[in-house]
Amino acid sequence: VAQGMVGHEAQVRAGFAALLGDAGGGIALAASTHDLLIRLLSALPLRARPRLVTTDGEFHTIRRQLDCLADEGIEVVRVAEFPVESVAARLAGAVDDRTAMVLVSAVFFDSGRIARGLDTVAERCRRHGAALLVDAYHALNVVPFPLAELGLLDAFVVGGGYKYCQLGEGNCFLRIPAGCDLRPVVTGWYSEFTALAERGAEGRVAYGTGGDRFAGSTYDPASHYRAARVFKFFETEHLEPTMLRDVSQHQVGVLAQAFDALDLDPAAISRDRAVPLSEVGGFLALQSPNAIALTQALHHRGILTDARGDVLRFGPAPYLSTIQLRDAMAGLGEAVRR
Fold first, then answer.
1. How far is it, in rounded angstroms, from Cα 286 to Cα 179?
2. What is the reported pLDDT for 5?
């Protein structure tokens, strides 16, 4: 069983690394991105650099944890998500010699907007000795995310397989840049397992290499068996990120056109038509003061969407047909008019 677990774990690590186009970094696995975020934060020199820079559009995993750190005296600088076109430049401008890390999404979970120009943030972090963490959860396998082409080879990347990878719960990862020598405080015996020869040397805690540096401890590996099979299925069916991006863009376009054709009262629900669809990720974001109520009304019609505050999100899966997408928008029109 142990050998099988290790084999499937290696396949899951390789699957995530392939989506990042990353052959040189390490991949640490955990049940949630929060577990991995905590391990990474525990490695930062927060006494010497008590400053974290982020945006006000991060998912709750990062947002809540940074709120807690701010309560404990860590300086947390939040730049505005909007306008997204300049968010990278504004993040870069907020980095100084007191900054330990910048934390930013590749695709914002609320608006679906892609954060362009993160290489400028990486360069600024490099210049000031700060680390960079990119949350790629809403990009992975729906928006191609090749680290080398994006200038992010020395960035940490966190993400998971619950959404566009279709791996189900319990399959999250932290990508560690090659040559990382950070010493996270919150790790488990798995991190030491591959470095047992160093154990106890001069009373110093030993760490494994690559992804093992941020490893945890004993956990239920059943999710890895599922994830390994799904990664293999995607490979066999040639479901690659570029192809899936083309499918997603077509589907989001169908939804946008169908929504526009409804000609609904913009005070009730609207979308930002100034943003080209090439600048959004895998879902169409609609603004409505009744977003949560509309989600519930659509659910009663068998149309599954979700809401984040005043944003109603339509996230089409690749297996949905154009007819189904148009029917979903027709259902939205009925719900809004009711």
1. 42
2. 47
Q: In the structure encoding, which two tokens stand for residue 139, read together?
A: 């990009």
Which amino acid would we find at residue 213? R
Q: Counting beta carbons within 10 angstroms of the beta carbon of residue 37, is it exposed (0 to 12), middle (13 to 18) or buried (19 or more)?
A: buried
Helix (H, G, I), strand (E, B) or coil at 178: coil
56: tokens are: 């006000």
Per-residue pLDDT at 199: 59
For residues 88, 94, 99 and 105, what is the CA-based torsion angle, rounded to 10 degrees? -30
Helix pair angle (322-337, 291-300), 10° resolution: 120
The three-state secondary structure class of 312 is strand
Task: List strands edge to edge, sheet with 311-314.
Answer: 284-287, 311-314, 306-308
> What is the rounded average pLDDT for all residues in the chain?
94
83-92, 196-205, 222-231, 269-278: segment of lowest average pLDDT: 196-205
Residue whose pair of structure tokens reads 């991006």 in the numeric block = 245
